[in-house]
Amino acid sequence: MHRPVVAALLTLSLLPAAVQATDQASFQLRNAQDLIDLCATPEDDAAAEAARGFCYGFLAGAYQHAVAVSGGDHEKVGVCLPEPKPTRAEVAAKFVAWGQANPQHTGESAVDALFRFGHGTWPCAKKKSR
Description:
The protein has six helices and no strands. The termini are far apart. The protein has one domain (23-121). It is mainly alpha-helical. The radius of gyration is 20 Å and the shape is globular. α2 crosses α3 and α3 crosses α5.
């Protein structure tokens, strides 16, 4: 009588891993598609919190690093966010939509695709020459 109960409990304990939609390999960030997949993880996925944290951290970290390396010159980075600044969730949603509309770039590195998206979405105004 205990064996069927133990077997049922073991089966139930494995169920979340079996129905989880997020591919754990995506966390290795092999290409832009992995980042898109993490940013698009549905709320009901068992890995949603981790995927969202990874996505937001990567988006913000890559951008902040580029700004820091450029000496704070957003125009050198080529991405000038509007005011008010979009939320991390808004940036992630736009990046996912961009990736779905531009599958030819999903095999690139995540950072290259992210800046390709940023340059096209929030380009800096060109300086007027004198």
